[in-house]
């Protein structure tokens, strides 16, 4: 039988990088996503007997990490963010820059909703819970964000890559 430490270690390995990326994509600059994620995982470890029984323990950790990140942002806006390139050296720079430019065009709430839905792969109900709003409000937020993203022109480099196929 696996010990608590073993199950938490596997949980950490499975979710740490994804949570860091989601934080960085969703919240942008002004905090350290790895620090916020580490703090959230530390709290999860302290309450692992409860957190491990949740339907989606990674969502619990993500919500705690978002709160920690917002707290960091209030304390100091001078902290340089880490990027997903630090976590995944194989990420395409062009794709990364295009995604970041598109996300920068969204309002903060829309940006977080898009990241949680399409990067973290959370259902609308869980996103609404994480962002403290109603499910209908979250659907409207996602709809508006996607509508805005559809109006943005593709980066020329991305168009060239598609045309060459």
The chain-level structural class is mainly alpha
How many strand segments? 0
Low-confidence stretches: 76-82, 156-165
Give the mean pLDDT.
Answer: 78
* N-to-C order of helices and strands: HHHHHHHHHH
Summed up, what is this model?
With 165 residues, the chain is an all-alpha fold.
List descriptors:
165 residues; mainly alpha; 10 helices; globular
Describe the structure.
With 165 residues, this protein is mostly helical. It has ten helices and no strands.
Write the SSE topology.
Elements: H1 4-27, H2 33-46, H3 48-51, H4 57-75, H5 84-87, H6 93-104, H7 108-119, H8 124-130, H9 135-151, H10 156-163
Helix pairs in contact: 1-2, 1-4, 1-7, 2-4, 7-9, 8-9
